[in-house]
């Protein structure tokens, strides 16, 4: 396969049906743009000013209990509300519809100084179990059509608090990105798009980053972000609730490996947005929906130079400089233990 390693070319994202432009020759260009500040702060195990630390009062006035594992609560400043609203607009041109939802926060650990990569295997397994339980609980509500589990890590990605935590938004309708992926998977003429894709990646090997008995992490062929990774189960699973105990141990293990590699790439706590796409909870069968996790990190050349989605990317299509193969090699060369 000629991947055009040094020439501009475009690659098809089979999960969305969209194209990404790859420009490997641009890695030599000088950079005089924005340079991010980096500070490797040493955080305490407990911060009395942190509203997510055990026993502290949150910004909304509610006291966080003294918890010793994961802790889930309804977001005090939720973007969505569970109450049904009336009204809306639909005159054929202007369309607006009410949207219900529930927004929750998941504290991964009571310790303020940890990240997923710094947590023990049993603690990571507890996080995976919590995600699965929340997906099942929220998805069982008769009006919830989709459950989005995600984490924004680092101030660069908009995290408002450094305490290890993620979010879950349960929505009435299917959001844009999962809808695009679900449509591509449903239209695929084989048994499962991502099962076949993973088999192709394992056969090639150049974009594989890490693996265990149950899960594989790789830089997707169509990656947009410089060090983007995709985490896939080796066998077909539609959702987190389909995973048995050993599968969940495998997921916990690979998530720890991915995040530790990220942190060692530039010697900082690596910023990213991470989230799971899985079977919708709208009552449909969705047999081709395949559980997977996306990691979207913004850093490009170093801890201080990030990738910006502007100009051509906003107005035309995404573009990347370093190839997915070279990004995978750099991540693969790092220690994950």
TrEMBL record:
**Annotated CDD domains:** GalT
Single GO MF annotation? zinc ion binding
List the catalytic residues.
165 (tele-ump-histidine intermediate)
Residue ranges occupied by any Galactose-1-phosphate uridyl transferase C-terminal domain in the UniProt entry: 189-335
InterPro entries per the record? Answer: GalP_UDPtransf1, GalP_UDPtransf1_His-AS, GalP_Utransf_C, GalP_Utransf_N, HIT-like_sf
What do the Gene Ontology cellular component annotations say? cytoplasm
**GO terms under biological process:** galactose catabolic process via UDP-galactose, Leloir pathway
Q: So which cofactors does this thing need?
A: Fe cation; Zn(2+)
Cofactor descriptive note: Binds 1 Fe cation per subunit.
Keyword tags: Carbohydrate metabolism, Galactose metabolism, Iron, Metal-binding, Nucleotidyltransferase, Transferase, Zinc
The UniProt record lists the keyword Transferase = yes
What pathway annotation does it carry? Answer: Carbohydrate metabolism; galactose metabolism
> Which species?
Asanoa hainanensis
Enzyme class, broadest EC rank: transferase
Q: Which SUPFAM superfamilies match?
A: HIT-like (SSF54197)
The UniProt annotation places UDP-alpha-D-glucose binding at 26-29, 59, 75-76, 152, 158-160, 167, 307-308, 312-313, 319
Q: What is this protein called?
A: Galactose-1-phosphate uridylyltransferase
Binding positions for Fe cation? 181, 277, 292, 294
What residues does the Galactose-1-phosphate uridyl transferase N-terminal domain cover? Answer: 7-175
Q: Which PROSITE patterns match?
A: GAL_P_UDP_TRANSF_I
- List of residues binding Zn(2+): 50, 53, 112, 163
Entry's EC annotation: 2.7.7.12
Family affiliation: Belongs to the galactose-1-phosphate uridylyltransferase type 1 family.
Q: Which residues form the signal peptide?
A: none
Q: Which reaction does it catalyse?
A: alpha-D-galactose 1-phosphate + UDP-alpha-D-glucose = alpha-D-glucose 1-phosphate + UDP-alpha-D-galactose
């Amino acid at each position: 396969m000629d991947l055009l390693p040094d020439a501009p070319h475009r690659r098809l994202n089979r999960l969305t049906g969209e194209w990404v432009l790859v420009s490997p020759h641009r890695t030599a260009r000088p950079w005089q743009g924005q340079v991010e500040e980096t500070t490797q702060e040493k955080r305490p195990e407990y911060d009395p000013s942190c509203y997510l630390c055990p026993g502290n009062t949150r910004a909304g006035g509610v006291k966080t209990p003294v918890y010793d594992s994961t802790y889930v609560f309804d977001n005090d400043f939720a973007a969505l509300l569970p109450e049904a609203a009336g009204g809306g607009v639909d005159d054929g041109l202007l369309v607006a519809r009410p949207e219900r939802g529930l927004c929750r926060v998941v504290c991964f650990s009571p310790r303020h100084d940890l990240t997923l990569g710094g947590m023990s295997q049993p603690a990571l397994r507890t996080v995976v179990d919590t995600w699965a339980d929340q997906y099942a609980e929220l998805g069982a509500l008769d009006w919830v059509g989709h459950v989005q589990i995600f984490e924004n890590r680092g101030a660069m990605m908009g995290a408002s608090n450094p305490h290890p935590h993620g979010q879950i938004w349960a929505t009435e309708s299917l959001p844009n990105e999962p809808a695009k992926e679900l449509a591509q998977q449903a239209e695929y003429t084989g048994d499962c798009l991502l099962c076949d894709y993973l088999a192709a990646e394992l056969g090639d090997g150049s974009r594989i980053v890490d693996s265990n008995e149950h899960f594989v992490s790789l830089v997707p062929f169509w990656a947009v972000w410089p060090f983007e990774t995709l985490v896939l189960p080796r066998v077909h699973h539609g959702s987190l609730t389909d995973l048995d105990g050993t599968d969940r141990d495998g997921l916990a293990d690979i998530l720890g490996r991915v995040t530790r590699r990220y942190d060692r790439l530039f010697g900082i706590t690596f910023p990213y947005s991470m989230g799971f796409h899985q079977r919708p909870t709208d009552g449909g069968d969705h047999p081709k929906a395949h559980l997977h996790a996306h990691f979207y990190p913004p850093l490009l050349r170093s801890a201080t130079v990030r990738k910006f989605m502007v100009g051509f990317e906003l107005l035309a299509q995404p573009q990347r400089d370093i190839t997915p193969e070279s990004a995978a090699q750099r991540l693969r060369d790092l220690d994950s233990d």
